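Whiteboard transcription, Tuesday session. T.W. wrote the C-alpha coordinates on the left side:
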Protein backbone atom coordinates (compact mmCIF):
# COMPACT_ATOMS: atom_id res chain seq x y z
CA UNK A 1 0.00 0.00 0.00
CA UNK A 2 1.23 3.47 -0.89
CA UNK A 3 1.96 6.03 1.80
CA UNK A 4 -0.25 9.09 1.37
CA UNK A 5 2.53 11.62 2.00
CA UNK A 6 3.85 14.19 -0.47
CA UNK A 7 6.12 17.23 -0.43
CA UNK A 8 4.63 20.63 -1.24
CA UNK A 9 6.58 20.71 -4.55
CA UNK A 10 5.25 17.26 -5.47
CA UNK A 11 1.68 18.27 -4.68
CA UNK A 12 1.98 21.41 -6.80
CA UNK A 13 3.44 19.38 -9.68
CA UNK A 14 0.55 16.88 -9.62
CA UNK A 15 -1.94 19.74 -9.36
CA UNK A 16 -0.31 21.46 -12.37
CA UNK A 17 -0.52 18.20 -14.34
CA UNK A 18 -4.22 17.88 -13.51
CA UNK A 19 -4.86 21.47 -14.51
CA UNK A 20 -2.98 21.07 -17.81
CA UNK A 21 -4.78 17.83 -18.69
CA UNK A 22 -8.22 19.23 -17.88
CA UNK A 23 -7.90 22.79 -19.18
CA UNK A 24 -5.50 22.44 -22.13
CA UNK A 25 -4.91 18.92 -23.40
CA UNK A 26 -8.41 17.44 -23.03
CA UNK A 27 -10.19 20.30 -24.89
CA UNK A 28 -7.59 20.02 -27.66
CA UNK A 29 -8.21 16.28 -28.08
CA UNK A 30 -11.99 16.72 -27.79
CA UNK A 31 -11.82 19.19 -30.66
CA UNK A 32 -9.86 16.68 -32.76
CA UNK A 33 -12.42 13.95 -32.00
CA UNK A 34 -15.26 16.25 -33.07
CA UNK A 35 -13.42 17.13 -36.28
CA UNK A 36 -12.68 13.47 -37.07
CA UNK A 37 -16.30 12.49 -36.33
CA UNK A 38 -17.54 15.14 -38.76
CA UNK A 39 -15.68 13.40 -41.60
CA UNK A 40 -18.24 10.61 -41.66
CA UNK A 41 -17.63 6.87 -41.34
CA UNK A 42 -16.02 6.37 -37.92
CA UNK A 43 -15.33 2.64 -38.36
CA UNK A 44 -12.41 3.31 -40.73
CA UNK A 45 -11.34 6.66 -39.34
CA UNK A 46 -7.88 6.36 -37.73
CA UNK A 47 -7.91 9.96 -36.46
CA UNK A 48 -11.19 9.37 -34.67
CA UNK A 49 -10.09 6.06 -33.11
CA UNK A 50 -6.70 7.34 -31.99
CA UNK A 51 -8.04 10.54 -30.46
CA UNK A 52 -10.85 8.66 -28.68
CA UNK A 53 -8.18 6.39 -27.20
CA UNK A 54 -6.20 9.45 -26.07
CA UNK A 55 -9.36 10.94 -24.56
CA UNK A 56 -9.94 7.76 -22.53
CA UNK A 57 -6.33 7.87 -21.26
CA UNK A 58 -6.67 11.54 -20.29
CA UNK A 59 -9.96 10.90 -18.48
CA UNK A 60 -8.42 7.97 -16.63
CA UNK A 61 -5.43 10.04 -15.49
CA UNK A 62 -7.69 12.96 -14.49
CA UNK A 63 -9.85 10.61 -12.36
CA UNK A 64 -6.74 9.14 -10.74
CA UNK A 65 -5.22 12.56 -9.98
CA UNK A 66 -8.45 13.96 -8.52
CA UNK A 67 -8.87 10.98 -6.19
CA UNK A 68 -5.18 10.90 -5.26
CA UNK A 69 -4.90 14.63 -4.53
CA UNK A 70 -7.84 14.35 -2.11
CA UNK A 71 -6.08 11.80 0.12
CA UNK A 72 -2.50 13.09 -0.03
CA UNK A 73 -1.10 14.81 3.04
CA UNK A 74 1.46 17.55 2.40
CA UNK A 75 4.49 17.30 4.69
CA UNK A 76 6.44 20.53 5.10
CA UNK A 77 9.91 20.91 6.59
CA UNK A 78 10.09 21.45 10.34
CA UNK A 79 13.24 22.73 12.14
CA UNK A 80 12.84 19.83 14.59
CA UNK A 81 13.89 17.48 11.78
CA UNK A 82 17.42 18.92 11.53
CA UNK A 83 20.16 16.37 12.02
CA UNK A 84 17.93 13.32 11.47
CA UNK A 85 16.53 11.60 8.40
CA UNK A 86 12.81 12.20 7.93
CA UNK A 87 10.44 12.68 5.01
CA UNK A 88 11.78 15.25 2.51
CA UNK A 89 15.44 14.91 3.54
CA UNK A 90 18.33 14.92 1.10
CA UNK A 91 20.61 12.10 2.24
CA UNK A 92 24.08 11.10 1.10
CA UNK A 93 25.16 7.56 2.00
CA UNK A 94 28.23 5.44 1.39
CA UNK A 95 28.72 1.67 1.46
CA UNK A 96 31.78 -0.37 2.46
CA UNK A 97 33.10 -0.30 -1.14
CA UNK A 98 33.14 3.50 -1.19
CA UNK A 99 30.09 3.79 -3.48
CA UNK A 100 28.10 6.93 -2.61
CA UNK A 101 24.51 7.78 -3.39
CA UNK A 102 22.64 11.03 -2.84
CA UNK A 103 18.86 11.13 -2.94
CA UNK A 104 15.76 12.72 -1.46
CA UNK A 105 13.15 10.74 0.45
CA UNK A 106 9.72 11.64 -0.95
CA UNK A 107 6.25 10.19 -1.45
CA UNK A 108 5.61 7.39 -3.96
CA UNK A 109 3.84 9.78 -6.35
CA UNK A 110 6.96 11.92 -6.79
CA UNK A 111 9.65 9.43 -7.81
CA UNK A 112 8.78 9.03 -11.49
CA UNK A 113 11.19 10.70 -13.88
CA UNK A 114 13.71 11.42 -11.12
CA UNK A 115 16.78 9.28 -10.43
CA UNK A 116 17.64 11.25 -7.29
CA UNK A 117 14.32 10.64 -5.46
CA UNK A 118 13.36 7.48 -3.55
CA UNK A 119 10.00 6.54 -2.10
CA UNK A 120 9.40 6.67 1.64
CA UNK A 121 8.10 3.11 1.17
CA UNK A 122 11.43 1.78 -0.18
CA UNK A 123 13.63 -0.46 1.99
CA UNK A 124 16.46 2.11 1.83
CA UNK A 125 14.25 4.95 3.09
CA UNK A 126 12.70 2.78 5.82
CA UNK A 127 16.17 1.78 7.04
CA UNK A 128 17.38 5.40 7.07
CA UNK A 129 14.44 6.97 8.93
CA UNK A 130 15.49 8.65 12.21
CA UNK A 131 19.19 8.02 11.53
CA UNK A 132 21.74 10.79 12.15
CA UNK A 133 24.96 11.71 10.35
CA UNK A 134 27.57 9.08 11.16
CA UNK A 135 25.02 6.31 11.78
CA UNK A 136 24.97 2.99 9.95
CA UNK A 137 21.80 1.66 8.33
CA UNK A 138 21.24 -1.98 7.43
CA UNK A 139 19.16 -2.18 4.24
CA UNK A 140 17.50 -5.47 3.29
CA UNK A 141 18.23 -6.37 -0.35
CA UNK A 142 17.44 -9.45 -2.46
CA UNK A 143 21.06 -10.56 -2.05
CA UNK A 144 21.06 -10.05 1.70
CA UNK A 145 21.45 -7.14 4.10
CA UNK A 146 23.72 -4.28 3.00
CA UNK A 147 25.24 -1.68 5.31
CA UNK A 148 25.20 2.02 4.40
CA UNK A 149 26.90 4.85 6.31
CA UNK A 150 25.04 8.20 6.53
CA UNK A 151 27.39 10.98 5.35
CA UNK A 152 25.15 14.05 5.15
CA UNK A 153 21.54 15.05 5.80
CA UNK A 154 19.99 18.29 4.58
CA UNK A 155 16.57 19.75 3.98
CA UNK A 156 17.54 22.48 1.51
CA UNK A 157 15.63 22.45 -1.79
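and on the right, the sequence the group agreed on:
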Amino acid sequence: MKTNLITREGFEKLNAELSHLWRVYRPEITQKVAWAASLGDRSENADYKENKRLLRQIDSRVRFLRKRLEVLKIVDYSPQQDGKVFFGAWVEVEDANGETKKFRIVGPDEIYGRNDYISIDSPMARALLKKEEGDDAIVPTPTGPKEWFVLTISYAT
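Someone added at the bottom: The first strand starts at residue 5 and ends at 6.
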